[in-house]
Request: fold
Amino acid sequence: MLVIWLAGAASGFADHGPRSYQAIASSVVKILPTWPGYGRPGFGAPDGTAPEGSGFYLAPNMVSGTPSRFIITSAHVVSAATRVEIQTAGRREDAAILLVDELRDIAILEAVSQGPSVAINTVSPPAIGRHVCALGNPFGLGNSFSCGVVSAVNRQAGFQQIEDFIQIDAAVNPGMSGGALVNGDGELLGMINAIFTKQADIDAGVNFAISNKLLLETLSNDGSPFCRVENRSELLTNCPVRLN
Reply:
């Protein structure tokens, strides 16, 4: 009886996946870039870039559930696109590129319709061994959810000029760039960004999310769509498209 009770307790502690998913699911969207020379998404993506990507709504106050038109994604998902669309359950619409931060591989989009903002966890970095989950759009199949643990923090992998990665073993595949890495409460820990593989674009259990620390650096930069004037906290729409 004692062994059974302990096993049940451990399982219950780890099984936060459904709660995490419910907290984040409606905030994550598919990103559909149209690449130069093509009339619709899904064709002509640059080498090393999936035809589709992922993104998530974020409000300036960073409070979970706040309606927002603004979407965070990976810069490489949209940087060369001639048109960007987002897709959620039952809705597909155009989105404007407001910011491309290529140094950190972060982009910010503005959609027509609003979606519920994620909540950002400001305790950084997460503990190694912490159970985490990733939500994104692998292979263009639609939003999919996987869980694992934090394998390392403050990782540099040589993908971009400024890096602070959370390494995870949760399954991540092409198309999930720009997706959300969350904790057991569905709070954002980072943005899914890259996988490490030598042979093929498939998950090898060595996957990387950009930390909230770097996300907040971009969002608070004077050139970002979160640029603020005194006593004003909403996003502005006159910010430059690219940061150098």
The radius of gyration is 18 Å. The longest helix spans residues 2-14.
